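Structure in, sequence out. Go:
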């Protein structure tokens, strides 16, 4: 019994049993693979939901696929899973979405990146240089 308990505790403590594993890809690779890509944000009233619920993002910049700037786009952010997308109210995200046969396109922690600044207490965290450079390269 002690051995079993130790094994379970070891696996959980390592974080690997429950962690989301993202394939390492450059943004250009993600863009090439994803049928839908855009920059958008949830409105100020957004609250994370339960598994199976969707989130609606306001598209500020359409990049690829059946999405237009100024429109609302509903996605399945995989709430309550290890790979759930990190969606926060009024925070611009670079989104790579993948259609599924029935329901809203899926986005995950692996297919979203910060595209705008995020307030963090007394300071502001800017988007990564990689995201800024990628978006700039698309507008050339």
């Amino acid at each position: 019994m002690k051995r079993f308990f130790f094994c379970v505790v070891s696996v959980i403590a390592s974080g690997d049993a429950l962690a989301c594993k993202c394939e390492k890809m450059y943004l250009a690779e993600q863009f090439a693979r994803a049928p839908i890509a855009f920059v958008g944000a949830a409105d100020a009233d957004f609250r994370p939901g339960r598994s199976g619920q969707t989130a609606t993002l306001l598209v500020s910049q359409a990049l690829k696929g059946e999405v237009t700037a100024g429109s609302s786009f509903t996605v399945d952010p995989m709430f309550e899973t290890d790979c759930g997308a990190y969606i926060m109210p009024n925070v611009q995200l670079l989104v790579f979405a993948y259609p599924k046969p029935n329901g809203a396109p899926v986005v995950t922690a692996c297919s979203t990146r910060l595209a705008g600044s995020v307030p963090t207490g007394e300071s502001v965290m800017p988007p990564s240089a990689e995201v800024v450079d990628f978006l700039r390269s698309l507008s050339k």
